[in-house]
Amino acid sequence: MLKRERPKERFGYDPQKVLRKLEELGREILKEVRQGKNPYFDIPTRGLNNVYFDEVKRVIRMGDKLSRRYFLNVAHARKFMQTLLIAAYVKRLVSEGKHASLREAYYANKHTIPGTKENTFEDQSESDPIIEDLERMLGVLREEMHLTADRRGYVYGDITIRDGEDEFNTSKLGMGGWAVPGTVEHIQFVDINVDYALVVETAAMADRLIEEKFPKKERALIIATQGQASRGVRRLIHRLHYEEGLPIIVFTDGDPYGWYIYSTIKQGSINLAYLSEKLATPEAKFVGMTMDDIKKYGLENVTEKLKGIPPNKKGGPTGDYKRIIEEMNYPWFKNKEWQRQLKLALEWGVRIEQQALANKSLEFVAKKYLPEKIANEELLP
Amino acid sequence: MAKAKELFKEFKIQSVSEFFRRNAAMLGYTGKIRSLTTVVHEAVTNSLDACEEAGILPYVRVEIEELGREHYKIIVEDNGPGIPEKFITHVFGKMLAGTKAHRNIQSRGQQGIGISGAVMFAQITSGKATRVITSTGGDEIIEAWVKIDVEKNEGKIVKKLKHPNPTGWRGTRIELEVKNVKYVRSKQGVFWYLKLTAIANPHAHIELIEPDGKLIVFPRSSEEIPKPPVEMKPHPKGVMTDDIYRMAKKTRKNTVKRFLISEFSRISDKKIDELIKYIAAIRLINREEDKRIKDQLFERLAKGEVDLILKSYGRRAKKVLKEVQKLMEKPPEKLSWHEAEEIVEAFKYMKFLAPPTHGLRPIGEENIVKGLTGILKPEFVTAVTRSPKVYRGGIPFQVEVGLAYGGELESTFNLLRYANRVPLLFDAGACVTTMAARSIDWKRYKVEDLDRAPLTLLINVISVHVPYTSTGKQSIANEDEIYEEIRLAIMEAARRLQTYLSGKHRRLYQVKRKKTLQKYVPEIARALSILTGEPEEKIKEYFLRLIEKKFENVEETLEQAVEVEADAEA
């Protein structure tokens, strides 16, 4: 039986650390310029060519390639200025204990540069990457800088959370549970009465499980990601696992997108590779949907065809086929079980949704499918 | 017979003047705008030529007065040497008379019909005599009204007054009244013509008073009077039978040999011996009946095997050589057309030194630069004067090009064409200068769109014999050698423009960079102040000092680069 484990990490958010890092950044720049040197920032490079898979920690991590952003370079100067603007803004936010959304951060810092027709920021697409740059440079989460994204995903189960002045149990907020905010850095877990967390891809499935009282019966915490898991949700999963010792089980559709959601929760993503250590949960396991489920539960009639051209056909592989082949090449899917699943998907050319289980009966998933699989630990690594 | 008599009843001998009266177009009197320009051109040209020959810095003033519809009075006044009384009728009244006719000399006017043509034009359009006021700087000023007796080709003074000259005024002022003309400020008009003239003659001060009373001054930008052109003897490769025939009739030398040596360049006693051999060889070869053999022999002659050919004819050759020698000793006026033909033919096979070029008088790079700068006020100007070359085997010519860019120039390409410093205003399309200028790949020289570039190109073709495409003398024929020289000159000037432009772009780019960096400083200072607690003003100072330091060095190296470029051009 799955049981809550011993915590591995301690709650680590410290606003003073963020402020110190920001001030240090400012002082370095000032020192350079005072000495008549061309000040610069070193920013870890984005993108595929600066990430690697850490076999020991089993997460996607960022390489050590840096790009240097100089003030005295006309091509860099604008971004140099923008970086400092955001850094100063963050300092104010953190020291005042306030949070701002990415959009608010954009508007707060957007103004016309005196004596020109140029704006400090023309578009949010200019400020968002600067915030990411700061995260990389400082090794500090956006959430720790009090910059939040829109909330997405929700939590339902017998856990008590303290968020600012409020304290609440997420199974007592109605069927909708507790919406995960953009940043979960500041929340604290007061009491946890569940054995594991079940991360569910679709809201429809999460709702179904809540209605069937699955959380209560199985002592599970339901976390609905609503598609690709937001940073808030990923961070919450990470914290629940490492700070509270909750085992993590992921329940997605049986298709390349679902498997990718799992991959991101487990190993992190290329985009946010620099945050993997704070966002990824390599110990997470996968409950379904798998290709084996189709046979085992007789779901052949409710599969869907994969989209795109199969690899053995002219012009292929494209669409779902192409993505499956890409996923087969992920180092963390290079194990017997996953290779078999993915190969089956390719062979059969089918995908299966979580909701397909409703074909059996509405209660099937909550009463039979999940409890059986989890109890028997029929989980994929 | 009776019929012929009837016919010849109406037959009259037409005088030269009469001919030109009927064919005014040949002298440039076509169209209302062009006719006016031509009148001004003839008068101004005379003034400039006269001043140059007399070593005077020209001061020319043109005044156009509107008297009625398409009816103007044109006044041209100069500070030239003046005209002695007895020459007034010659200068203004007689066609084909002048100081330069029939001399192999580079000049603005050539046939000596210019100003008399203008007098004629005034006379046939308005019926009025031309008023001439002139003094050579002596005690008296002469005021004369000149008309042309068309039938006799003679000038006559219809009225004459003499005035005292207490201030010692010297110069010439002529007033012509013309009808059927129009003053328009177009590219074929007087304004444009004078502007072009001023550019090519920076030593001249030129003024124009337009019909509405507006005064336009093209000031002098050089104090250097161009040296008057030197007469050049024709080169044997450049002459035609008619030239030899005609010149032989007029020469003072008493033998053909002496005539050839003294009146052509590059002909010496030794060359005459050679010429004799060639003429003899040509005569002998021409007697051959077999065309194939004939062609073969001419081929060998072209290779210079004249001695071998003569040897192969043995005694016959000796006889012919003697005959030709005799021809060389006979009086030139007795030279027959056929003999002149033989000489020209022999010249074709012979080798001569390239013609002398001392008679060519380019404007000169320095003066072109002065002219373009003074009148157009560009930001960049350069000039290229190529060394003389020959076309058609023996006619020396020289090309010069001036290039002005930016500054007060409008953003449009202008080609200023000149032949012997005379602006060409018409038939631009047919002119070799236009073709050459258009054939250049301007993009290679950083001129992206020629027709929208603030660029003015001056091209002056100098020769004792400019190959005009027609009697209008407004466009230069496309001779390969001239075309190539123009292209080479333009490309050299364009290369300098390219250097300048890339330097300029570099400089502008630096200024822009500096400004870009500076504008961010206040923002950066405020942010850094929040991050570090340091006062904003101080941070600003640090950053501004950093920027200054960076561009200080850059500016120095740039100035050095520009200086090096200037040195290279000097």
From TrEMBL, chain A:
Biological process annotations from GO: DNA replication; DNA topological change
SUPFAM superfamilies: DNA topoisomerase IV, alpha subunit (SSF56726)
Cofactors, names only: Mg(2+)
PROSITE patterns registered for this protein in UniProt: TOPO_IIB (PS52041)
Parts of the chain that traverse the membrane: none
Assigned EC number: 5.6.2.2
Annotated ranges, domain Type II DNA topoisomerase VI subunit A all-beta: 154-191
Pfam families: TOP6A-Spo11_Toprim, Topo_VI_alpha, TP6A_N
UniProt keyword annotations, A-Z: ATP-binding, DNA-binding, Isomerase, Magnesium, Metal-binding, Nucleotide-binding, Topoisomerase
Residue positions of the active site: 107
Binding residues for Mg(2+): 201, 253
A single cellular component GO annotation: chromosome
Keyword Ligase: no
Similarity-based family: Belongs to the TOP6A family.
NCBIfam families: PRK04342.1-2
Function recorded in the entry: Relaxes both positive and negative superturns and exhibits a strong decatenase activity.
Protein's name according to its UniProt entry: Type 2 DNA topoisomerase 6 subunit A
TrEMBL record, chain B:
Keyword Metal-binding belongs to the record: no
EC numbers: 5.6.2.2
GO biological process: DNA replication; DNA topological change
GO molecular function, one term: ATP binding
InterPro entries, alphabetized: HATPase_C_sf, HATPase_dom, Ribosomal_Su5_D2-typ_SF, Ribsml_uS5_D2-typ_fold_subgr, TopoVI_B, TopoVI_B_transducer
Catalysed reactions listed for this entry: ATP-dependent breakage, passage and rejoining of double-stranded DNA
Superkingdom of this protein's organism: Archaea
Domain Histidine kinase/HSP90-like ATPase: start-end pairs: 31-152
Assigned keywords, A-Z: ATP-binding, DNA-binding, Isomerase, Nucleotide-binding, Topoisomerase
UniProt cross-references to Pfam families, sorted A to Z: HATPase_c, Topo-VIb_trans
Residues reported in the UniProt entry to bind ATP: 46, 78, 99-100, 109-116, 473
Assembly notes: Homodimer. Heterotetramer of two Top6A and two Top6B chains.
Family, as annotated: Belongs to the TOP6B family.
This protein's name: Type 2 DNA topoisomerase 6 subunit B
